[in-house]
User: What shape does this take?
Amino acid sequence: MHILDDLGSYAMQLSGVHGHEGYTPLQEFAVTPGRPQGLFWPEESGGTQAILDCLDAVGGLLVAVVASVPADRIGWHPFGNPDRSGLAAMGIVELTVHTHDILAAHHRPYRAPDVVVHRAMNRIFADARRSGDVWHDLLRATGRTPDTRGGSWRWDSSPLDA
Assistant: This one.
């Protein structure tokens, strides 16, 4: 699961003092041949509840790592080597936009809390266009609006003082 891998990998970027370029060198695998590869897989027999439990666990891991590492710890990402605030914002964006994607596919509305989205937008999409609707701005910045769908986008997770 992409979201599980993102949250878990972001936590691993800050934990330990590995000091190398690139993601933590773990072997990805597919649970079933022909399916996507990943690091974290919920038990298939657990269904939706297992997915939610795993999201809660890796999200909690990222929160714990962000809260406990030294402020000067830097992780790695191809869109800017992030500090803990960058990785926290990346996790928030991944979780909220993919929640939107999943629920939209089932014709269910979803909107993340503005206060959370606002902080993440200011941290990693500082130069993105603003309309006064922060949720719409995040969806636009990540290629999820009719006028941006299919276009390229990227955040800047570099430390703010870089």
Summary: The chain has a mean pLDDT of 90. The radius of gyration is 16 Å.
